[in-house]
């Protein structure tokens, strides 16, 4: 399972890098949905090739995988986190785009939280609250924080609720 996750991660990173180069050097129009679709396609192709190779050596029962493309997503939210080692402060940035590539909103801040993971969670919550306020409920989240990725993958549905004081 870890190897499959690592292969998927490198495939996604390569797809992003390749698309960036095509935008910079060939004048292609940036399209985040194309990157997501190409990544998913390459991951599926690689998985099929790897499984057929495994099947020749031993019996292999593939696990059913969830495809992010089976749902009708409305928004792609990108969350990035960085930590300054000298000042020991963290900062985050997020950006939300519709699936056609149009920018909805972006934001960022720096804070003194002790770990990058808490900052990543803060950024994600802020972005999701903004998206929900704009009436977008089906979102795909892309981030550079591995713990946030694991958190999102292990909890497919939100396990938190927003409480308000009732008068």
Structure description:
- The protein has 167 residues and is of the alpha+beta class.
- The chain has two domains: 2-66, no CATH class; 71-154, Ribonuclease H-like superfamily/Ribonuclease H (Nucleotidyltransferase, domain 5, 2-Layer Sandwich).
- It has helices spanning 2-26, 32-57, 116-133, 146-154; strands spanning 75-84, 89-98, 103-111, 139-143.
- The longest helix is centred in the N-terminal third of the chain and has 26 residues, at 32-57.
- It starts with a helix and ends in a 13-residue tail after the last helix.
- This is RNase H type-1 domain-containing protein.
The low-pLDDT segments are 59-65, 158-167
Q: What name goes with the CATH superfamily of the largest domain?
A: Ribonuclease H-like superfamily/Ribonuclease H
Number of helices: 4
Tell me the strand percentage band. Answer: 15-25%
CATH topology of the largest domain: Nucleotidyltransferase, domain 5
The main β sheet shows up as: 4 strands, mixed
* SSE series: HHEEEHEH
Backbone shape = globular
Identify the CATH class of the largest domain.
Alpha Beta
* Share of helical residues: 40-55%
Gyration radius, in Å: 18 Å
Strand order of the largest sheet: 3-2-1-4
Give the termini separation.
49 Å
How many structurally independent domains? 2
Structural class: alpha+beta
**Number of distinct beta strands:** 4
